[in-house]
Write a structure and sequence with these properties.
about 30% helix
């Protein structure tokens, strides 16, 4: 089921799908393959692709293909509740917060000029918001985006909760 909202009084209806790297080693990702796979999403009736936060930042050819197809992108940063304390690992991850934020800034600088980019997300199913991601990373991501781009940031992607309960804080 999609989500609708208004932009300049015009109703917009979003129906999205998930993107988990077409080739994790980035060896077969040609501009043609990106174009074909983005168009598969479009022909399936989707107009938004979520780039999963447990994965990677896609190559510029991915965003160019989304631009050309008119498909919007929800770009997550590389954090997942799977290893960021929610189910496993440590809430303190990553080991170097300054290196993480430096890479996040590089990503924003690389993709910010693409009209397909709708917004940023701190990561995949991060919870509780008081711990995940760490406060300095939350503040750093917000600062990077407000300094280098005019799009918005939500800290955690939406999920269905655990055993039917909504355990995630989403804004």
């Amino acid at each position: 089921k999609g989500q609708s909202f208004k932009v300049n009084g015009i109703p917009i209806f979003l129906t999205g799908g998930n993107w988990i790297a077409t080739d994790a080693m980035l060896q077969k990702n040609t501009p043609e393959r990106y174009k074909d796979e983005i168009n598969l999403h479009k022909h399936a009736g989707l107009n938004l692709i979520r780039v999963w936060g447990g994965g990677l930042t896609e190559r510029p050819e991915f965003y160019a293909a989304a631009d050309a197809a008119g498909v919007l992108v929800m770009q997550e940063f590389w954090m997942s509740g799977d290893n960021n304390g929610r189910w496993a690992g440590s809430y303190d991850w990553p080991s170097s917060h300054s290196a993480y934020l430096s890479m996040a800034k590089d990503m924003v600088l690389m993709i910010r000029h693409h009209p397909s980019l709708l917004f940023y997300c701190g990561g995949n199913e991060l919870w509780p918001i008081e711990q995940n991601p760490p406060k300095d990373i939350q503040a750093g991501l917000a600062d990077i985006i407000s300094t280098f781009d005019n799009r918005f940031l939500i800290m955690s992607s939406m999920d269905g909760g655990y055993n039917g309960m909504n355990m995630s804080d989403h804004d």
